[in-house]
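Problem 12. The chain below contains 455 residues. Write out its predicted structure in token notation.
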Amino acid sequence: MTNKRELFGTDGVRGEANRFPIVPEVALKLGMAAGVFFHNRKGKPRIIIGKDTRLSGYMIESALMSGICSMGTDVYLVGPMPTPAIAFITRSMRADAGIIISASHNPFQDNGIKFFGRDGMKLPDADEAEIEHLMDREDLPRPTHSDVGRAFRLDDAEGRYIVFAKSSIPRDMTLDGLKIVVDCAHGATYKVAPAIFSELGADVITIGDDPDGMNINLGCGSTNPEFMARKVVETGADLGLALDGDGDRVILADSGGEILDGDDVLFICASRMDEEKNLSGRTMVGTVMTNMGLESSMKSRGIRVIRAPVGDRYVLEEMISTGAIVGGEPSGHIIFLDHTTTGDGIITALQVLRVMVRTGRTLSELKGGWVRYPQVMRNLKVQSKPPLEEQSWYRRIILDARDAMGDDHLLSLRYSGTEPLLRVTVSCASGPLAKEVSQRICDELTSRLGCGDIG
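Solution.
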């Protein structure tokens, strides 16, 4: 069996709801395949299913549940819950797998299906390929009579996750005296996020907590943090946090409405962990999109930054292989491996709040410890995606750019995994030089590949 996957992308199965592959027929077969693949225990195996607040979630949930039960596997439904909560509950219940129905930060018309193994981690490519292979089989064993699976409602899922999230900061710590704006993006965190911060003592101003199935991420959340930032200033809050639709990422704002991304969070948390002698191997993991200024700042502190490909699953893989316990992306996907196995926007916000409380410093003061390098990002539309490393002229382009910028720079050329785009990112200490090098590279690529510049 090869690792070839056609249905699964870089982050599960994604697409427009009720258009292939996000259709009930595929979800049914996917459920049947999963029911067989995870049938590795005595008695009936168990699979957890959660979802965000999208209208199409009901349709996909029902089809998945039917397919799984038809293969003799039991299903536990938790309803709208954050993606990281499904990872936690899967581990906590010793279930065989977890499934989240969500398209994360995408608009409501999209949806997706993502699997976690019993360890709460995303499935490796080989496992996803095997599930796809099972979907094509017509001879899957069909149990009958009492061997058919059952579906249960897990009514205390919210409470379990709330307790788990709060346990990620010390038991003697409260958020008393802090006013926090919490933007739930009309998504999966709309119940649990306000409860968590309120129970810890914060004065919580909640926005984006009225989902109607179609307003998830609409003008709010981590992809539109300006909404949250304005509310922080209007209400005189100490800080704000904007979660995305499935709750696995967060973007922050300080009391002045200045927005902090994942790079800021990594600086704040990794620096403090290092001061406390809790940063394993004095190492953190970023991606090829991590700002070069952050790497330079960490290096000056004796902290090693390892870069992974874009995608939180690749960040996690690098963390596991290097022993790092913190890593993430500028988009706000941050993983604290000593607390959880996946990006968790709520736990990330709690780790930043922990630093604020322990140091007595404001978010604005904490973020000021590093200098962001100018970064130029361009998207080039492509008709095809020939491997760049195999092109005879590619090495010369890279060498010329590196010679121009010196040692302290970032250069990334990568194809989008979901769109016909070639993404070019250039960063160095000089903004004008970064723009010049970026333009030079884009001109060359346009000439060689027939690209169209779309910004």
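Discussion. The longest helix spans residues 431-449. Students who got a different answer should revisit the alignment rule from Section 12.3.
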